[in-house]
Amino acid sequence: MAQDNGERLIWFLAGAALGATAALLYAPQSGERTRRMIGRKALEGRDMLEEGGRDLIDKGRDLYKQGRRVADEAADLFERGRKIVEG
Asked: How many domains does the chain have?
């Protein structure tokens, strides 16, 4: 589920960047000014994607730690149950 949210975020940001670029291309400004604006927006989009990627990595690490903890607890419970059954 978290992966789905991450993918949605990435696609949303990519769509927003493309939409902003298209809007700039149709804006009634000079070519030089439009190119500067596109460059600025591209850098902003890159920064947003980097930040989103870092957030996804952090969430992934957290999920891995939680999963590891649950697996360790399950293994411990299994071992305790085995010892009880063996007597």
From this structure: 1
Q: What is the pLDDT of residues 24-63, one digit of tens each?
A: 677 676 777 777 877 888 888 888 888 888 888 888 899 9
Two structure tokens written together for 24: 């700039």
CA-CA distance, 69 to 27, in Å (whole number)? 54
Radius of gyration of the chain (CA): 24
Domain residues for the domain of 30 are 2-86
| Contact by Cβ (8 Å): 16, 41 | no
C-alpha distance across the termini of the chain, in Å: 41
Tokens representing residue 73 in the block: 């607890």
Q: What is the pTM of this model?
A: 0.48
